[in-house]
Design a protein that fits this description.
alpha/beta; TIM Barrel; 2 domains; binds iron/sulfur cluster
Length: 390
């Protein structure tokens, strides 16, 4: 009788695990975490803190890279995504008092205050040369009484009517909450109405960092993290997808970053609607935040890797090149990141805080950046299905 045939090893899985050999063999201090990654076992808060406190950056990157590989099929494992998107920031007039914000102006009469009407937005978009090929609007703005539910209904109606091929992603949880208060409605009412007029997904801004301490100090008027999570949870239950963010460089500790990631993971366990997680950096020009809080390159890379390793239930981790710069975003692709956002037309929010990156990169530049990192550039649809593989 012949011996039972052993199952063929999955070559792709084998390669991802092989990468961890140096950590698994011997007595590497992160060996037990490598074992958990191989077994698909969830990392704990303690694991997160050990990674955060480790100085073995390359080992942390290897763990995150292996976790990324183990998440995807062999055919798509090296895909790095971006989307052809267009940012619309309707106004910078905002009642918010966030001390890290360089974008907002308290009064419509302030120097540099602006407000775009629906027709102005539609005209601007219509003149964009890449319009035929545009996949997504990304709409976030200040919070001011003129931006009520009626405004958004009119805007979404017009955008849907003139540009039906473009997905409307818009309104952070903080904006949804503001509109609900302004119009005396529930979050669900606002989301339902917006959805009826073309709203398709929500961006993850407004989360900042989930720390009571930093919240009290820098954005006391903003919704709490419990409210932020609840609004995203409600949107998910209604069938909307969204992204989640974490704003770093506000003086938060590693413990607070790890706790933030775990709260996002907990919400995702419940409602499963986050497609992507995006670690963001604060920029300091024209803000009240001390620039000495800025993350160093090593801290940025650890944050990308921790996001991949702790958020085992979110598929995509994004390197937002507009804040990190294309070069750091490219390196992040070896630290668990598999999405470089988009071509980003007309970004204003980060640039008013001194971000020194371009406001736009061409598809060719993005593709070159991804290819020279040894990955496959994929222009995507909003749901991550490939639109064009380079
Ligand atoms: S971060 Fe948003 S809510 Fe806060 S002041 Fe700036 S625009 Fe307003």
């Amino acid at each position: 009788m012949s011996a039972p045939t052993a199952p063929l090893p999955d070559l792709h899985h084998h390669r991802a695990v092989e990468q961890l050999d140096p950590l698994l063999s011997g007595h590497h201090p992160l060996g037990d975490i490598a074992e958990k990654v191989v077994q698909g076992e969830r990392l704990t808060q303690q694991d997160g803190m050990r990674l955060a406190e480790s100085n073995d950056l390359l080992a942390i990157g290897t763990l995150a890279d292996a976790a990324r590989k183990l998440k995807f099929e062999a055919a798509t494992v090296d895909y790095v995504y971006w989307i052809h998107n267009y940012h619309i920031n309707i106004t910078n007039v905002c009642e918010g008092t966030c001390r890290f914000c360089a974008f907002s102006r308290r009064s419509p009469k302030a120097k540099e205050a602006y407000f775009l009407t629906v027709d102005q937005i539609v005209d601007q978009v219509a003149q964009y040369p890449g319009l035929a090929d545009l996949a997504e609007f990304h709409i976030v703005s200040g919070m001011t009484p003129d931006l009520n539910l009626a405004y958004y209904v009119a805007l979404f109606d017009k955008l849907s009517q003139h540009f039906p091929h473009v997905h409307i992603k818009g309104l952070t949880a903080a904006e949804i909450d503001y509109i609900a208060n302004l119009d005396g409605l529930s979050h669900e009412d606002v989301l339902t109405t917006l959805r009826q007029h073309g709203h398709r997904s929500m961006p993850g801004g407004g989360a900042e960092v989930f720390s009571e301490r930093i919240h009290r100090m820098l954005y006391p008027d903003k919704i709490s993290h419990e409210q932020w999570l609840a609004i995203h949870g409600k949107a998910h239950q209604m069938g909307l997808k969204s992204t989640a963010t974490m704003l770093c460089g506000l003086g938060e500790t590693w413990q607070e970053r790890v706790d933030h990631l775990l709260l996002v993971r907990e919400q995702q366990d419940k409602t499963e609607g986050f497609t992507t997680f995006i670690p963001l950096n604060c920029w300091y020009d024209n803000t009240a935040v001390d620039a000495s809080n800025a993350l160093t390159g090593v801290e940025n890379l650890k944050t990308f890797a921790l996001s991949r390793l702790l958020l085992d239930n979110i598929d995509h981790i994004k390197g937002y090149w507009i804040q990190h710069g294309l070069k750091m975003a490219q390196i992040s692709l070896s630290f668990g990141v598999n999405d470089l956002d988009g071509t980003v037309i007309q970004e204003k929010i980060s640039h008013m805080a001194g971000t020194d990156t371009a406001q736009y990169v061409t598809k060719a530049e993005l593709a070159h950046t991804i290819k020279t990192a040894g990955k496959i550039p994929v222009e995507r649809h909003p749901d991550y299905s490939p639109r064009h593989i380079y």
